[in-house]
Amino acid sequence: MSESTEPAGPGGGLTTGEVARRLGVAPTTVRTWDHRYGLGPDRHTGGRHRRWTPADVARLERMCALTATGIPPAEAARLARDETRAAEPPAGPATPDAPARPSRAGSGLRLGDARQECKGIARAALRLDAAALDRLLIDAIREHGLVAAWTEVIVPTLQAVGRKWESSGERYVEVEHFLSWHVSGALRRAAPDTVPDRPGATVVLACVPGDHHTLALEVLSAALTERGIPVRMFGGALPVESLLAAVRRTGPAAVALWAQSRTTASRPLAQHVASMEWGVRGARRSPLVLTLGPGWSGRPVPGTARPHGLADTVHALEGLATR
Length: 323
Hints:
InterPro entries: Cbl-bd_cap (IPR003759), Cobalamin-bd (IPR006158), Cobalamin-bd_sf (IPR036724), DNA-bd_dom_put_sf (IPR009061), MerR-type_HTH_dom (IPR000551), MerR_fam (IPR047057), Meth_synthase_dom (IPR036594)
Radius of gyration: 25 Å
Domain HTH merR-type: 13-82
Keywords: DNA-binding
Organism: Streptomyces prasinosporus
Number of helices: 12
Number of domains: 3
Largest sheet: 4 strands, parallel
Region (Disordered): 79-110
Structural class: mainly alpha
CATH topology of the largest domain: Rossmann fold
Oligomer: single chain
CATH superfamily of the largest domain: Cobalamin-binding domain
């Protein structure tokens, strides 16, 4: 029986496989830290399988947090050992009935009651562990589907990382960029092939001029493609004339415009796109314009729609494109 599936023996404790899943690392990484840096369990149970106590796991979580800040592994291991020893309570009468307090060591990210997958993804991002991050993201998308994985796993993790660098003097900007890049790659791998054009069914996606935040449009593009809706994605900061040309050339059913901040959200631009027409006389058509992103908060833009959240946006566009 493997370490990752063997039930806990007398005395309890986690297997190496269970510890690895909790930390969001490979079991081989845990074993390497044990053999190379002496971060193994303090006590052993009978047999060849090792059991990890909460104190052992806290030491490994501290190792993850220290290496995420750029400290070399050997030095991080020494600090993790020293810090956890210093935190141990003085010897005294045993209190077996006292419940163990969960460790708060590790990433330092405020994830609240988020799904367990969020914690593994956050730890992998903090360690800049590309292989683990890709695997965890793809697993979340496969298990929950694109929309639920984005809403319940990816967005909470992105928000936690954003709060981390905002409260740390921008020390973790590289982590946010790293996580965003790998989320983008996972979305591309999870989405099916491009859907062929269907007259009057195409959806145009673009960030307004001056806005480079494409990730939410990337997941929308993947979700629509998954549902057989043709998409034309133009990415970040599309110039005004280029946006208008794209709309004229594609004759889309809808145009989704993303604005991250109010400084880039142009109400006149959204209204102008909504007023565009094409087609023969007597059968002219205009696109439905969706204003997406926090930049459009406040008073609605006349002649446009503002769905709330990815699921509502996908539902609105799915119904429009399949008419």
